[in-house]
From TrEMBL:
Pathway(s) the chain acts in: Phospholipid metabolism; CDP-diacylglycerol biosynthesis; CDP-diacylglycerol from sn-glycerol 3-phosphate: step 2/3; Lipid metabolism
The protein's name: 1-acyl-sn-glycerol-3-phosphate acyltransferase
Catalytic activity reported: a 1-acyl-sn-glycero-3-phosphate + an acyl-CoA = a 1,2-diacyl-sn-glycero-3-phosphate + CoA
Domain Phospholipid/glycerol acyltransferase, chain residue ranges per copy: 66-181
Length: 236
């Protein structure tokens, strides 16, 4: 019963937050700071509705762009990580997201990059555009490097795109880790559970080349996996 009530309230909140975000975006379309505003709109009431206790320090203030790499567990990430998005940060998403009612239009107008994964040429053009964004527009990019939702707590192999772009643009990687909340939260309880979020020290890419992508990817994944296990042990 409590789960059903929460899902209803989350649905209403999602619609209202999307509408407010769309109004903001219509006045400043494709502004890279729209994602931060939208993230806070979604996270503001969602966490109290879910009954989740979230412990997360703000991401370090940065004067230059970076590539954020985070683990992706479920659609709840929108609510759980939304309040953490730094200024002038956009993300990459599937082109099909554009057609999701309300959210898709908000995602597009927030300046996020939509990739057509079924078209190699267009996907490559989107990646080049994103690299230019990192280089010249003082805008960071948020990646879910696993490429899909994964609630297991054990990271799937990372995709190379985030690391290729970071090296091409000469910007650092900032890993962002969330505890394996899908294992621990129960939305049918008043106190659903606790979630920990943490960012790791940046990993520099200056001087690296395309040949260094596998080592950079492995370094990031190893550090994130270790930290996620530490966060999980604290939650347990």
């Amino acid at each position: 019963m409590l789960f059903s009530i929460r899902m209803l309230l989350l649905s209403v909140h999602f619609i209202v937050a999307s509408l407010v975000g769309l109004i903001v975006c219509l006045f400043r379309p494709f502004n890279p700071d729209n994602s931060r505003i939208a993230g806070r709109l979604y996270a503001s009431l969602a966490l109290p509705i879910m009954g989740v206790r979230l412990k997360a320090d703000p991401l370090p203030t940065r004067a230059t762009p970076c590539v954020y790499v985070a683990n992706h567990q479920s659609n709840y990430d929108l609510f759980i990580m939304g309040g953490l998005i730094a200024p002038r940060t956009v993300s990459l998403g599937k082109k099909s997201l554009k057609w999701v009612p309300l959210f898709g239009q908000l995602y597009w107008l927030s300046g996020n990059v939509l990739i057509d994964r079924g078209n190699v040429m267009r996907s490559r053009q989107s990646m080049l555009k994103t690299t230019e964004t990192l280089r010249h527009r003082n805008t960071s990019i948020w990646f879910f490097a696993e490429g899909t939702r994964n609630p297991s707590g054990e990271l799937l192999p990372f995709k190379k795109g985030a690391f290729q772009m970071a090296i091409a643009a000469g910007v650092p990687i900032v890993p962002v880790c969330a505890s394996s909340y899908m294992k621990h939260i129960d939305l049918n309880r008043w106190n659903s559970g606790r979630i920990l979020l943490d960012s790791l020290p940046e990993i520099p890419t200056a001087g690296l080349t395309a040949e260094d992508v596998p080592a950079l990817l492995a370094q990031c994944q190893t550090q994130m996996q270790q930290r996620i296990r530490e966060l999980d042990s604290q939650v347990a």
